[in-house]
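User: Fold both of these, please.

Assistant: Here is the first one.
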Amino acid sequence: MLVALYLDELGIYRHGSVDGQELLGSFLEEDIQSSIDSCDIVLQLLLDVEQGVREPFELTGNAHAVLMQPGKVSIEHLWLYPPVPPLELTAEQFRQALLEWRNFIATTPRSDISI
């Protein structure tokens, strides 16, 4: 789902999103960041919502609000001006993106660059 995952010149995990899905990439960069634990928590929340263990759930992070409902996920950027419409994904698309990001940050060592 994500076109390119890479480390930038400062050693920060970055994304290259499919056109129209930039909000997904910015959510991963700005809210999940380099945290495997955050990936795991969001994946578990999504699973709980999908299995009916939890009611639809809204997660608010650093820059995005993510509404998880059975079968679908909506990502809204909280700080963009002018605002952009929320991105609507299937739950499976969201899960796959989280798994790709998790694998990327787990297997790609960051370089320690001090500024």
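And the second sequence with its predicted structure:
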Amino acid sequence: MLYDKRWEPKLPAETIEPWRQCLLDAADLLKREGWRTNSMGALGEPKCVLGAIRYSGHSNEVRIRAEEIFQHHVGMPLAEWNDCEVTFGWSVRRALRKAARQ
């Protein structure tokens, strides 16, 4: 019998809430461009957590919601958390991904 995998019905893609995707995109951006303290960074440069969320490519409403949720997740203002509480970029990326999965 003639068969081609392309003929199988397409399953709907799993949807993710935009603020969750924003946090995941911010983590990916930090992995690609690097993490830093005391500066939001610019395109192509290392960024703080706020810079990564803001450069993630999402709308203002989504970014604001993502910042609010992530701030609640870490329990303090994000700029203070980024500059004083975190010592490694990998821990920032891990926290972003954890908050997106909550």
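Residues 16-101 form one domain.
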